[in-house]
Amino acid sequence: MKQLFLLFLFVLSACKEAPKDAPLSENTSTKLEQNDDIGLEIYDYDGLKPLINVDDNTIHVVNFWATWCAPCIKELPYFEKLNADYKEKNVEVLLVSLDFPRKYETHLIPFLKKNSIQSKVVCLDDVDQNRWVPAINETWSGALPATIIYKGDKRKFFEKSFTYEELQNEVQQFLNP
Amino acid sequence: MRNLKLIAVFVCFISLTAFTVTGTAGYDIGDIATDFSLQNIDGKKVSLSDYNTAKGFIVVFTCNTCPYAVAYEDRIEALNKKYASKGYPVIAIMPNDTDVKPGDNMQAMQARAKAKGFTFPYLMDEGQKIYPQYGATKTPHVYVLEKTTKGNVVKYIGAIDDNYQDASLVKTKYVENAVNALLEGKEVEQTKTRAIGCSIKVKR
Q1: Full-prediction pTM beyond 0.80?
Q2: Quick check: A129 and B196 CB within 8 A?
Q3: Which residues 65-84 on chain B approach chain A with CB closer than 8 angstroms?
């Protein structure tokens, strides 16, 4: 009986959580949600698009990652370092998390807090990957991690892991073309 | 430093010779897919040529440790249940380096297959020689092959369907559509799709 009660409680709590995952299926707006605690912004592809096509004088480094992706976690400190070291040189890092929505609370937010991630983080939650994966880059097979470096019209795409030196070298090419 | 240069030259040479033969991108639609002899979770070797009565194959590069692969486990099993009897069995191949991903080693594969009741072979790409020939880059990554007199022809490359999060919200079942078309003797309409997956793990 006690177990049944616990189960009931569990189901009840699950119901309470449920609406957080809900908006994506019938979303029409571009920005789906904002988690107030840590300010997590969640977008579908149409919402993300302007954020990865900013036409200003800044070098944008966009990294697609997820907490479950081991090579992503390994290279994340390099993007953080780049964001800190190159701030004065007009370089901006955007980390686009592809974590599953149900893992935002349990995995992503704890990870961001624990590692006190300083770069801007947004979530991409859009199941129609066959539309947006090739739209982001025609050559992208869909494997993570992946990175875009762009400034204005100049744009490079990488389906690979980076070392800090490799990342610096690529950014340097945008700094001194 | 000199050693490094030597290694670089050597790697260049190897890549040049290797890639002129196989190409870097793996298979495209219409290419003949290689057969293989890979160890199954039951200890036996499995080859495509073992399947005398098959009309083709649903080759799935997948693993235990990738959340996307896990999200699709039940759907991969369902594909085998639905299509093995119709002549298109699922052949699953685990492409990761198991030193990098111990959670994908043979014991772990056996345990996962048992827990999930897989009815399809779940093969180890020992030495990681097969997935590069196919051009698989991630898990899950599907190749639908049609058996012809010329060999096993690649007819579809990509994702299983268009909703990794929720099977009940799937709008287009890419792999089923491809296999259904082949079973009806028609051309596959959507031959390639893209989806997010976990990069195949290799030693760096």
Answers
A1: yes
A2: yes
A3: 66-67, 71
DSSP conformation letters of chain B: -HHHHHHHHHHHHHHHHHHHHH-SS---TTPEEP---EEETTS-EE-GGG-TT-SEEEEEE--SS-HHHHHHHHHHHHHHHHHTTTT--EEEEE-S-TTT-GGGSHHHHHHHHHHHT--S-EEE-GGG-HHHHHT--EESEEEEEEEETTEEEEEEEE-S-S-SS-GGG-S--HHHHHHHHHHTTPPPS--B----EEEPP---
Chain B residue with Cα closest to A101: B165
- Domains: count for chain A: 1
Assess if residue A7 is contained within a domain.
no
Domains of chain B: total: 1
Chain B residues with beta carbon closer than 8 angstroms to that of A66: 67
B123 assigned to some structural domain:
yes
* Average pLDDT by stretches of 10, chain B with 204 residues: 54 43 73 98 98 98 96 97 98 97 97 98 98 97 97 98 94 98 98 96 89
Candidates B179, B159, B161, B157; CA nearest to B170 is B161
- On whether residue B137 sits in a domain, the answer given is yes
pLDDT tens across A154-164, in order?
Answer: 999 999 999 99
Q: Does B158 touch chain A (CB under 8 A)?
A: yes
Alpha carbon B43 to chain centroid, angstroms = 19
- In chain A, the residue whose alpha carbon lies closest to the alpha carbon of B165 is A127
Q: Which residues of A touch B100 (CB under 8 A)?
A: 70
Q: Chain B contact for A164, CB < 8 A?
A: no
B196–A133 C-beta distance less than 8 A:
yes
Instruction: Say if B175 is an interface residue toward chain A (CB within 8 Å).
Output: no
